[in-house]
Amino acid sequence: MSIAGRNTFTWTLMLFLPLVLVIPSESKGTKLYYMNDYCQSIISLQREAIRLDLFRGGSPYAGFGCNMSVHAMLVSVNGLVTTFRRMDTASSVFGTCTDTSSKLDIYDGPYYRTGLSLTGIYGLCGKYVPKKSYHTYSSYMTFGFKTGSSSYQSFEAIITPYHEGQCFKDEYKCNNGYCVASSLRCDGYNNCGDNSDEKNCKFLLTIGAIVGIVVGCVAFIAIIIGFVICCCCCPWCFSCEYQSI
Fold first, then answer.
1. What is the pLDDT of residue 233?
2. Closest C-alpha to 72, from 165, 162, 134, 195
3. Where in the chain are the domains?
4. Which of 148, 143, 41 is nearest to 88 (CA)?
5. Is the full-model pTM beyond 0.90?
6. Beta bridge partner(s), residue 96
7. Of 3.30.428.10, 2.60.120.290, 2.30.110.10, 2.60.40.380, which CATH number belongs to 31-165?
8. What does the alpha-carbon distance between residue 160 and residue 47 come to, in Å, rounded to a whole number?
9. Are 146 and 102 spatial neighbours (Cβ–Cβ below 8 Å)?
10. Which one of 9, 38, 74, 117 has the fewest beta carbons within 10 angstroms of its own beta carbon?
């Protein structure tokens, strides 16, 4: 290929490459919130799930305490379901949280310590990741955390709005009867509470992935067509004849 031919191909790529780079994505991922950013505050959701971690920028200081709430705003939502991916707090004694333990308490309702406790009188502590899920039957879930003697404290919770009954077209029906947003299907997080939204995901493509593949193929074909047209029809391009370099 001649120098002119190489230059033409370069200009063609520059013309059509942006089509490849703007492939749409259905989801930007599950947003991460830090509990210490929202002490005495409320995080409001619609149908999206969130990730909740304890402390931005490391571990909380000794004596740290914080309570905050998550609120599902949609009328159609029955409640919130929370599952855990990580739990790493001060060690418990024989599996029981004590007054000196760091612990996390969860309540059904908008108020700390006055709502229905979902984690019992001892709360959650230690390094054991809870296998069970925690469900509210109101549109609020309240979290309270206090530090103990350990210097490192962390957890990661997945909080998802749900409703029962008949699911809408853009929702996924969990095995436990909950309806969650279909965009949460096969996202790597247990949004249903029973992990049924993460089953049989190996060959499942989301709408965003399918659109991305289609747009990518169209962009690639456009590049080839553009190169052929430029090669054979434009007087300022190199001709289709073989030329020595």
1. 66
2. 162
3. 3-25+206-233, 31-165
4. 148
5. no
6. 93
7. 2.60.120.290
8. 7
9. yes
10. 74
